[in-house]
Amino acid sequence: MSSPVDKMLRQRVSWLADSGPEDDIAISSRIRLARNVSGFPFPINASRQKLASLFEKVKLAVECSNCIKNPLMIRIDEIPKIDSQILLERRLISREMLAEKACPAVIFSEDESHSVMINEEDHLRIQAMRPGLQLSEVWAAADEMEKGLSQNLKFCFSPELGFLTSCPTNVGTGLRASVMLHLPALSMAGQMNAVLQAIGKLGLAARGIFGEGTENLGSLYQISNQSTLGEAESRIIERLESVVRQIISHEKNTRKILFEKKREFLLNNVGRAYGILRHSYIISSQEALNSLSSLRLGVDLGMFSSVDIHKVNELFLLVQPAHLQKYASKELDSAERDVFRAKIIREKLQSQGN
Amino acid sequence: MSSPVDKMLRQRVSWLADSGPEDDIAISSRIRLARNVSGFPFPINASRQKLASLFEKVKLAVECSNCIKNPLMIRIDEIPKIDSQILLERRLISREMLAEKACPAVIFSEDESHSVMINEEDHLRIQAMRPGLQLSEVWAAADEMEKGLSQNLKFCFSPELGFLTSCPTNVGTGLRASVMLHLPALSMAGQMNAVLQAIGKLGLAARGIFGEGTENLGSLYQISNQSTLGEAESRIIERLESVVRQIISHEKNTRKILFEKKREFLLNNVGRAYGILRHSYIISSQEALNSLSSLRLGVDLGMFSSVDIHKVNELFLLVQPAHLQKYASKELDSAERDVFRAKIIREKLQSQGN
Fold this sequence. Notes:
2 copies of one chain form a homodimer. By secondary structure, chain A is an alpha+beta fold. Chain A has 13 helices and 10 strands. In chain A, strands 2-3-4-5-1-8-10-9 form an 8-stranded antiparallel sheet. In chain A, strands 6-7 form a two-stranded antiparallel sheet. The relative contact order of chain A is 0.13.
């Protein structure tokens, strides 16, 4: 019998596989809303029993409101470790939820575009994702989910402060809006440090998407708001979108300059990345992510007409440890993963016919 | 009007393009005989005029004996520098002959298998080359050339010492027999140091083929006799051949072991080399030679069924600076060569259809 996670793996991830505005550079947009339910202690203070009953209450609220279609409901402490790793790699749960916590759970739609993490730092983390730059659309989706859930859940709210959260940095709107950007040209041109500094000065945060200290990996950056207090959601989102559009324009200009003025340097970087992905038999996660990043740029520049950019997006997911092992249907140690990763990438790119 | 060197470049190099025994590992066999002509001072002491008249005398002797068919006769000081570089890269002249010397010249057959260098360290360096391991055959060819020339040239000979030469290390037979070996598996397995030490102890020499200090480049080694005195030619050649056969067998075993026990390591090395050759846009001479070496091993292991091993042999020649510039029909600086080298390799491998 297949687990819910196995079922999920057979489905399409809409935010990776579908097209969206500016999706040559903006891979996906995400809104996350932190909420806590009145009458329950915050997760850090609550008993296992309380949190389990909270999960049941949220399940009911999801079902009643129908705010997530055909929802998969998974308690993290009831599934194999590899399955929870898969959920983490797909950004459906947070790294903190893998630790020994009371009753962490997640409820999400088939296409993974709508989800609610339960018993993370806060009771609920309502999350909506879409491909490309679609911050208004994901905000509308998250807001609608929240409204639906609030019909059956009373959220902790203070008229002065707004929504109350475990960590003071989330108080107010409880909103984190973020866009995942692919910035290979700015990386190649050595301009990312300047860009990251500017982002910091504008009150936004930039993080690598594969966890702490992975800023350079795959040239993938998640740009998000830092402050959640004293501003309307729409204003936070507008500010973020404005900065993201500037970064996208900067990346596009840099691609153009590289293509016109440092053509061989650019083609060499992209060509070698493709050659290695297509023909290596051992490849580390780091080299794979960085090579996929260069390949993705090459696809966008028209160098590989038969490679679909969404397939490259999916490879970013597939080369990660848990996905690899799930794909192999067995446990693999680090050296075995490097061999299997190379095999999968070779096969996937070969099937793209280049 | 095209120069003799341009004409040569349009012809087939038999020792690279043809098949020979053991030519998966033994690329070519070569015999070189040092001879000096009585009545002429050794080159180091002779006037330009004397050496010029010696060249005329040798030309006549070649023509009368017909020991080199349709010979090309080239005075190095009369051709452009790039053309003499081409002759050097094709091993038809020595590096010393590029320096300011009196009347250095070379006479060679269309297929480059038979040649005579003139006014190098000695008056004559008679040279025969063949593909694969064919020491007896090249010895017979060189011996026949020498016999032919001796009908019209009296060689300096001492009944006690044998043939007399400028450098005492060549006195006696004046013979240097050598085999160019491709030893990528021994290199990968880290066994070349041990092999080189053993070769030294057996009184043989091993050199990189691209000049001093290039031992590791392309895993190509020239194994040759050191001593020329006190032994018959046939005995010198037998000893060399016996050692060469042992090295070939050692390389074959190592390939087998790598293929069976360290399969991914081997495939990864070969696959990456192919990927880089096939898709890079900037490649140094060193990286090209080392990658071609791995590719050549891969072709021998059957990984690239549509790539012809002799085409890879020819690429070893083509990626060198003078050949590249001749191919481009213009002077190229080092950075331009790296770009053009990558282009040529991409094109040649693409036309091989892999």
